[in-house]
Structure formats: structure tokens, C-alpha cells
Hints:
By secondary structure, the protein is α+β, with helices and mostly antiparallel strands. Helices cover 13% and strands 31% of the residues.
Amino acid sequence: xxxxxxxxxxxxxxxxxxxxxxxxxxxxxxxxxxxxxxxxxxxxxxxxxxxxxxxxxxxxxxxxxxxxxxxxxxxxxx
Length: 78
């Protein structure tokens, strides 16, 4: 099963919470602290649940979220 990584750029986030609402896997939660503009922003809390659907990144109005597929390096040990 593929593994995905989520990143949030706090400086770009206005704290709308759309990513939290659209994530069926509950990968995000709003932080208790805020960014330099005073917005409470989300943080990935359950990346192991991420299916890589990308809904969070697609619907983020500030383009603050990126979803990466983690590729494991294959060893050449034979």
C-alpha cells in the first residue's frame, strides 16, 4: 500500500478549516497555536491514514497543502 506525506505551509494558511472538513480519513486537526498572521492552521495528525486522494490540497484556497507519495528506495542486495 502506498504511503503519503502531507505538508502544510503555515505562512500561507488563513485557517479556513476546509482541509479538516473534506478529509474523510481525519488526517488533519487545527493547532492550538497560530501563524504570524494570527490564523490557527491545521497540522497533519494521522498521516498513516492518508489515502492520497488530494482533496485537501485541491480544495485549499491558499495552496498551503501538498500531498506527496513516499517512494521507498529499492536495495540492490542480491
